[in-house]
């Protein structure tokens, strides 16, 4: 039984008793419940932020490795990805619409899925993966006119990089470090 359900049951019991002590317990348990939800929300935001940050670096490095994009093109790609991502988050375009476009026009299946059995953390990560993947692919199409073949190759390169992370061959910190080195090359 979850913590929230236990507190709710305790509140009902205290209300039924109807005593001052019961009322104090209800108020205290409501406060604890509120604090728990706030903490859970903050953890979710942190998980989402880290996932998006890691994915962004992963997509940029994959594009650098596959197509040799340097600082200038990677900055353009990053900015366009952010623009596409903002459109998705704002609700101007949905993930389903982008997936349908990619399926119908580019003959590409993203393989994005939901896992209803996944814990809350994994569901947050999966949603971030969907949003950032769509933003990445649409940015490549819009900014660099990628066609089906190059788009698929770029996405496969990103998936390969992700697999290397999963198998411990490289870490997200190393990926971010490589991207920072690329971005630092052109700075004066």
Radius of gyration: 22 Å
Largest sheet: none
Name the average pLDDT.
88
Instruction: Give the low-confidence spans.
Output: none
Give a count of the beta strands, DSSP E runs of length 2 or more: 0
Structural class designation = mainly alpha
Characterise this structure.
This protein has one domain (50-185). The chain is built from 7 helices and no strands. The chain has helices at 3-17, 20-67, 71-90, 95-105, 120-144, 148-166, 172-185. The radius of gyration is 22 Å and the shape is elongated.
Short description:
With 188 residues, this protein is mainly alpha-helical. The chain is built from seven helices and no strands.
Q: What structural keywords apply?
A:
about 190 residues; mainly alpha
Please write out the topology:
Elements: H1 3-17, H2 20-67, H3 71-90, H4 95-105, H5 120-144, H6 148-166, H7 172-185
Helix pairs in contact: 1-2, 2-3, 2-5, 2-6, 2-7, 3-5, 3-7
């Amino acid at each position: 039984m979850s913590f929230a359900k236990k507190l709710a049951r305790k509140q009902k019991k205290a209300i039924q008793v109807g005593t001052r002590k019961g009322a104090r317990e209800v108020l205290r348990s409501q406060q604890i419940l509120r604090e728990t939800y706030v903490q859970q929300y903050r953890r979710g935001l942190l998980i989402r932020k880290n996932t998006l940050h890691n994915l962004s670096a992963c997509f940029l490095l994959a594009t650098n490795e596959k197509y040799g994009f340097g600082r200038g093109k990677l900055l353009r790609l990053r900015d366009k990805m952010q623009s596409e991502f903002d459109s998705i988050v704002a609700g101007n375009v949905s993930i389903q619409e982008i997936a349908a476009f990619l399926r119908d026009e580019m003959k590409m299946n993203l393989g994005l899925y939901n896992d209803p059995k996944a814990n809350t953390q994994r569901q947050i990560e999966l949603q971030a993966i969907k949003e950032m993947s769509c933003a990445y692919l649409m940015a490549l199409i819009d900014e660099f006119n990628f066609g089906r073949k190059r788009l698929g190759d770029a996405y496969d390169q990103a998936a390969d990089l992700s697999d290397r992370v999963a198998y411990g061959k490289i870490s997200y910190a190393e990926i971010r470090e490589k991207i920072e080195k690329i971005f630092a090359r052109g700075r004066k």
